[in-house]
Design goal:
The complex is a heterodimer of chains A (665) and B (451). Chain A is of the alpha+beta class and 665 residues long. Chain A is built from 21 helices and 26 strands. Chain A has 4 domains: 81 residues, Uridine Diphospho-n-acetylenolpyruvylglucosamine Reductase, domain 2 (2-Layer Sandwich); 115 residues, 2-Layer Sandwich (Uridine Diphospho-n-acetylenolpyruvylglucosamine Reductase, domain 3), CATH 3.30.465.10; 110 residues, Alpha-Beta Plaits, CATH 3.30.70; 185 residues, Uridine Diphospho-n-acetylenolpyruvylglucosamine Reductase, domain 3, CATH 3.30.465. Chain B has a 4-stranded parallel sheet with strand order 4-3-5-6, sandwiched between helices. Chain B has a 4-stranded parallel sheet with strand order 8-7-9-10. Chain B has a two-stranded antiparallel sheet with strand order 1-2. In chain B, helix 7 crosses helix 8 and helix 20 runs parallel beside helix 24. Classes of the chains: A alpha+beta (665), B alpha/beta (451). The interface between A and B is large, with 44 and 40 residues.
């Protein structure tokens, strides 16, 4: 693109601009296969410089992309429309490590490993550990909502971000915290791939280092047996810190290049357990029995660090071993409900075979997250095309199996077409409106996440099998549709225990969710439940707990929908995997799904938490269940109606442009 | 999605090696560089990237630029010159690389492509002096050092004597060097009656230029250690490994050095199990890589393999059970010379040796990376080199060490310079010097060092 005079930009970053051909070339790729060249690179050294650069871009209508270590696997940090790359690599200070409040405050350029090292010195760790943790930055982790093996027990990045300070597309510097009253804007920013703002300071939860660690490796005669064992282990209430699986092709490659002494079996599982010595001992005992019951042929246990390292060595070197077999490795990423892993693996193998490719499967098995790795030669256009087609077919298969198109790599540019396969048109349209409301000029990392016309359509792609609305849902949908043309206000209520007086007006239509009170899908193997929003929390818990399933939500009077709407406790975000919502215009859509890791577009399901019915009607929610009783607060005061700020108003523009739902004064 | 389609992706014949011996086997330059999957795992290992945050001067950045050069993607190929010339060639990226892409070798190929057959005058002069006019080199260095010792180095610099001789760079170099030896190492060693090749010889000492001309004390220590720990051995005089022309000059000159060393060794009558031992890790690493110079010459390749398989870094020659304890007055640490750690994979041996010597006085140095010396790098890129050096010295200071051990000439020069400037309480020594000190003070030692 033709850039305006750079004088102003040069001033905001103290002259740290790169414009030479070789420099721009170096910022035109990440770890995925796409390329796009920036016109200028800013090496920002402070939040103020980032803000200055964004302001300059906003003023001159120049697109920009923030970049950390450039390890993105979906093309997220290449500047598709040129413009400015804002490098955050120099914002690399760890500002605070507070072991009393268990929080670390860091700049976005801090490398994950550096943070882990600093925390280890004070007996703490930060849970998310993406494979690239030695080089990737916290800013990138936040932008992509990064995962890693430890997600099984601890959840993904958005479960660990307490607050961010971000430079927003309008050039303002804003702080968003999980503690903020009102909607969960923080969860919307995390995983938004730099399209809604740039985090320049991040508050992270840190955890005490575990007392004891133990590792177990088990070999299985079939992938099926191994995956069965994974489900058994979770169901038995053993929650490993990590539960990794690899298939025969991967094991063979590891053993050929960097032998780790792994058994040549059809599947190998690696468990990492943590806790007190007695708890670990007890879990190891259970593991031993569960593995044996599924026909494990080889079981190796390690309780000291050196032996554990030895067992992990092969898993850790798997990517290296693969990368030596061909010039390029396509690292794919998908996620399915856990019990569909075997079926997904079979589909991946047959798709790869159709395209003449050989997949090597690595799984974060406990999460249902698969990484088929496909070695190929990126210099051969024909091979590239085959890999692209195979990857797309695999993404379609995950959708068909009830999963999602990305567990932790993000959408970026490479998975943009797949957004059409996963999401219904109303959900995509809502995401577009959210993007437009926050970034009206579309300058923040343009061309990412949301499908463009060139991405085709979803025609002919087997859609995610969505449950049609229940009768109770339909009747609410129809009532809203009848009123769609009218101007009268709509009030969303459950048992009316929470709607504040200042929200209720004399005239208007009350939409009560109470008739929607059924459990729609109790998936015991996947540890999820989908329930209608009008169910009383008391009833929900009464239904689940006798069977040994726990939902980590506080027990408050009233409905589930009411609890989600007022968000009395930030921790509820961890339980929300998906929502079905109804907008004031009568359209309804599913957000999220029933997989525990899902970075496929904006996390609107979490953003809606705490929105007090001002944005949409929650029809149903999909919740993550636990096999053990969670330690969460139950006695919570009735929350006050918050002051809704301008970011909430921007979301209101996107969700409810006519301002009909739950008005506030 | 395809990265490139057609075209000849090789250096013009004769400009560079064309083919490399990589960890994955013999590969063309283009295949070797295409093995970079752009994962970026090397970035945090790269001293120039971590010092600046500039991706063009990281391992991935440089690989992509070399690949771009081969794919003729640049309107002006010289735009890559800065990124390529600032590479320390430390090889830390290759150690971190999942596919072991040989970035340092590729950067050198890129530099050769940009030089297009032209050898810089300084490299030409030095190569000529080292290889063909050794007498003149000795003469010039001796007088240069005398002037420096007599406090006349500034005068020498001002009088531009060295500049007149075409040795301006050498004048700069000598000003950075804090030592000015009176006698060169080879002058002592040729006179040592014990150092003669014989049937029972277990080792041959290869005197790198650094030990020969700058730090004879290091070479003396190495020889005394080899005598004490490994019995009889001999000295291979008049040698230079050829790394200088390999890095800065022309490949044929490097090949000439290699051939001369191979021939000299073959003619020395060194018996089968004996090994060639050097005490500069840069030279040793290069000698271990001689076969790569002869991929097009099968006969020389096989002779080079024979030679290289018998080359050892003196770090590999320190059997623990025979190492004495040395009473250090304070903490001691070890700096990994890049060409020991990354090019040869030697990390455990020197640490074990230093632990044996220093016991609990040994401290592990945080961030084991390049010191910024890297041959002529400190002279070519003083500002960047100093940034890397300051980080290194602050890491050394964080261990409160009084001695830091290293194993390559560049590191010895660079660390001495940095310590003097930023942390004068500490001195740098070649690991062999410490072992020799221990042996000479220990009664158990079979022999003391040579005088």
């Amino acid at each position: 693109m033709t850039l305006p005079d750079l004088g102003g930009l040069r001033r905001v970053c103290a002259g740290n601009l790169l414009t030479d051909e070789a420099e721009l070339f170096s910022y035109s790729c990440d770890a995925a296969s796409g390329r796009a060249r920036p016109d200028v690179v800013v090496l920002a050294a402070s939040a103020a410089e980032v803000q200055g650069a964004v302001r300059w871009c906003a003023e001159h209508k120049v697109p920009y992309v923030a970049r950390g270590a450039g390890t993105n696997l979906s093309g997220g940090c290449i500047p598709l429309r040129g413009g400015v790359v804002i490098s955050l690599a120099r914002l690399d200070r760890i500002l605070v490590v507070d072991t009393k409040r268990n929080v670390a405050v860091v700049e976005p350029g801090v490398v994950n490993l550096r943070l882990q090292e600093a925390l280890a010195e004070v007996g703490r760790f930060y849970a998310p550990d993406p494979a690239s943790y030695r080089v990737c930055t916290i800013g990138g982790n936040v932008a992509e909502n990064a995962g890693g093996p430890r997600c099984l027990k601890y959840g993904v990045t958005s479960d660990h971000v307490r607050a961010v300070e971000a430079v927003m597309p309008d050039g303002t510097l804003e702080r968003f915290s999980a503690e903020d009253a009102g909607c969960d804007f923080l969860s919307l920013l995390v995983g938004s791939e730099g399209t809604l703002g740039i985090a320049v300071k991040v508050w992270l939860d840190i955890l005490p280092l575990p007392e004891t660690l133990a590792t177990a490796l088990a070999a299985f005669p079939s992938l099926d047996a191994a995956m069965g064992c994974v489900s058994d282990v979770i169901a038995a209430g053993v929650l490993p810190r990590a539960l990794e699986a690899m298939d025969r092709a991967t094991i063979d490659t590891i053993e050929a290049s960097a032998p780790a002494g792994y058994p040549r079996a059809e599947a190998v599982l690696l468990f990492e357990l943590e806790g007190s010595p007695t708890a670990v001992e007890r879990d190891l005992g259970k593991l031993r029995a569960l593995c044996a019951a599924r026909g494990a042929t080889d079981l190796r246990l390690a309780t000291d660090a050196a032996q554990s390292d030895k067992l992990w060595e092969g898993r850790r070197s798997a990517y290296a071993a693969l990368s030596r077999t061909a010039p390029s490795v396509s690292v794919e990423d998908g996620v399915v409900p856990r019990q569909a892993l075997t079926a997904a693996a079979a589909r991946i193998r047959s798709i790869a075979a159709e395209h003449g490719l050989k997949p090597h499967l690595l799984f974060h098995a406990g999460d249902g997250n698969l990484h088929p790795n496909i070695p190929y030669d990126s210099r051969d256009p024909e091979q590239c095309e085959r890999v692209r087609r195979a990857s797309h077919d695999m993404l379609k298969a995950y959708v068909e199996l009830g999963g999602s198109i990305s567990g932790e790599h993000g959408i970026g540019v490479e998975k943009r077409p797949a957004m059409l396969w996963l999401h219904e048109p109303p959900a995509l349209e809502l995401m577009r409106r959210v993007k437009r409301a926050i970034d009206p000029d579309g300058l923040a990392n343009p061309g990412k996440i949301l499908p463009l016309p060139e991405d085709g359509s979803a025609d002919g792609v087997p859609a995610l099998r969505r449950r049609p609305p229940s009768d109770a849902q339909w009747s609410l949908i129809e009532r809203v549709r009848e009123k769609a043309g009218a101007k009268e206000p709509l009030f969303v209520v459950g048992t009316r225990t929470k709607l504040p007086a200042e929200m209720a007006e004399d005239k208007g239509e009350f939409l009560t969710t109470r008739p929607m009170s059924r459990v729609l899908d109790f998936d015991r193997a996947n540890f999820t439940v989908t329930v209608e929003a009008g169910i009383l929390l008391r009833e929900l818990k009464a239904e689940l707990e006798p069977e040994g399933f726990y939902v980590p939500l506080p027990l408050m009077p009233g409905t589930l929908g009411g609890l989600l709407a007022v968000r009395p406790w930030p921790g509820i975000r961890r339980s929300i995997l998906g929502l079905r919502i109804l907008l004031a215009d009568g359209s309804f859509m599913d957000l999220g799904g029933k997989v525990v890791k899902n970075v496929a577009g904006y996390d609107l399901q979490r953003a809606l938490l705490g929105s007090w019915g001002t944005l949409a009607v929650i029809l149903e929610a999909t919740l993550k269940l636990s096999p053990v009783r969670p330690e969460i607060p139950n006695e919570l005061p009735k929350p006050e109606l918050p002051q809704f700020g301008r970011w909430h108003r921007k979301l209101k523009e996107a969700f409810d442009p006519d301002g009909r739902l739950n008005r506030w004064r | 999605m395809a990265d490139s389609t057609a075209g000849d992706k090789a250096l013009p014949a004769g400009l560079g090696l064309g083919r490399l011996l990589t960890a994955l086997g013999e590969r063309s330059d283009y295949d070797a560089v295409s093995q970079c999957t752009r994962c970026g795992y090397c970035a945090q290992a790269c001293p120039t990237y971590t010092a600046t945050g500039r991706e063009s001067i990281s391992g991935r950045g440089r690989n992509q630029l070399v690949r771009g050069l081969l794919e003729k993607r640049f309107a002006d190929p010289s735009c890559t010159a800065d990124a390529l010339s600032t590479c320390l060639l430390c090889g830390a990226c290759t150690t971190a690389c999942p596919a072991r892409v040989p970035t340092a070798d590729l950067v050198l190929e890129g530099r050769r492509l940009l030089r297009a057959g032209h050898t810089p005058w300084l490299a030409q002069v030095l190569t000529g002096l080292v290889f063909r006019r050794r007498g003149l080199l000795v003469f010039l260095l001796r007088w240069g050092f005398r002037l420096q010792r007599w406090g006349l180095s500034t005068l020498a610099a001002r009088s531009r004597i060295l500049h007149l001789l075409g040795l301006g760079g050498l004048a700069e170099a000598s000003l950075q060097v804090d030592e000015a030896p009176e006698r060169f190492l080879f002058e002592d060693l040729v006179l040592d009656p014990e150092l003669k090749a014989a049937a029972e010889s277990r080792w041959a000492y290869f005197a790198p230029c650094g030990s020969n001309f700058l730090h004879p004390r290091v070479g003396r220590a190495t020889v005394s250690v080899l005598k004490a720990l490994h019995g009889k051995g001999f000295f291979l005089p008049d040698s230079c490994c050829g790394l200088l022309p390999y890095n800065y000059g022309d490949l044929n000159a490097a090949r000439d050095f290699a051939k001369a060393n191979i021939e000299r060794f073959e003619a020395s009558g060194c018996p089968e199990p004996a090994v060639v031992v050097g005490d500069c890790s840069s030279c040793v690493a290069f000698m271990k890589s001689y076969p790569q110079l002869f991929l097009g010459e099968p006969e020389w390749k096989s002779r080079a393999e024979g030679y290289s398989s018998r080359v050892r870094d003196v770090l590999e020659m320190l059997p623990l059970e025979r190492l004495p304890a040395l009473d250090f007055p304070g903490p001691v640490t070890y700096h990994d010379s890049c060409r020991a750690k990354n090019a040869q994979g030697i990390t455990a041996e020197p640490r074990r040796a230093l632990r044996a010597l220093a016991g609990d006085r040994y401290r592990e140095l945080p961030e084991s990376d390049c010191c910024g010396g890297a041959g002529a790098f400190a002279f070519a890129h003083p500002e960047l080199s100093d940034r890397v050096l300051r980080k290194k010295i602050s890491n050394i200071a964080s261990t409160r060490s009084l001695v830091v051990a290293a194993s390559a000439t560049s590191c010895l020069v660079q660390l001495a310079h940095g310590l003097k400037k930023y942390y004068p309480e500490c001195r740098v020594a070649h690991l062999c010097e410490l072992v020799a000190e221990g042996l000479s003070s220990s009664t158990a030692a079979p022999k003391g060092p040579v005088s």
